[in-house]
Amino acid sequence: MTRGSGGAQTGSPEAGSPAVLDHLVYATPDLDRTLAEIAALTGVRPVPGGSHPGRGTGNHLLGLGGGAYFEIIGPDPEQPAPDGPRWFGIDALTGPRLVTWAVRVTGIAARVAAARAHGYDPGTPAAMSRRTPDGGRLAWQLTPPGTGAGLAPFLLDWGETPHPSDGALPVLPLVALTASHPDPGAARAELAALGVRWPGEPVTAGPTGLTAVLEGRHGRVAFGRGAVAV
């Protein structure tokens, strides 16, 4: 994905309004340490997003431009350990990693039905919420992350809730988004079933992984398995 490309889109008429890139998920086992690393590399410190009650996680955010954002998510020390594993494989991580991405849709139930009709089940939508630092509450529906071959996004429907990027997020423009997978054909088939066009360069053969390049204050920074100036 290059700057100004408009994010992931779909041309599937049965899926309703176009899906657009909502956010990228950068998961970490140590939120404070990762936030400090990002600030040092980019010259910008992500702003607090909030906590996810019952999930054991909290997040911080950066804007990507075009109505999308970059989520840094990790264990929330203000919450007790959750009953089950934290999402995004956080409990098994040894370091930060760009783990997945989300597309924003309206009418999430219809989108899921359309995907199932085309041979891919993105999972049953669930309601979620989080508290914001100012005491507010955001609520949304999403399909479970981590389904399928590993590159398909999860679906997210914000309903009437204001989008997180509508606030005063510092913006580090998304310059490029690349991906690899052992079976690129399988990954492309899942994207097609969702009606989503991959927003970056063509998926290449290799270990499953995502890399996003952001334009930082000191230059470009690549986020994949960790972060590095490029």
Description:
By secondary structure, the chain is mainly beta. It has 3 helices and 13 strands. The protein has helices at 31-42, 108-117, 184-194; strands at residues 20-27, 47-52, 57-65, 68-75, 97-104, 126-131, 137-142, 154-157, 174-181, 204-205, 209-216, 219-224, 226-229. Strand 3 (57-65) and strand 4 (68-75) form a beta hairpin. The two termini are 17 Å apart. The relative contact order is 0.22.
Radius of gyration: 17 Å
Q: Determine the strand fraction and express it as a percent band.
A: 35-45%
The percent range for helix content is 10-25%
* Number of H/I helices: 3
Oligomer: single chain
**Low-pLDDT residue spans:** 1-7
Mean pLDDT: 87
Basic shape: globular
Beginning-to-end CA distance, first to last residue: 17 Å
N-to-C SSE string, H for helix and E for strand: EHEEEEHEEEEHEEEE
- The count of β-strands is 13
The profile of the biggest β sheet is: 8 strands, mixed
Biggest sheet: strands side by side, in what order?
2-3-4-1-5-8-7-6
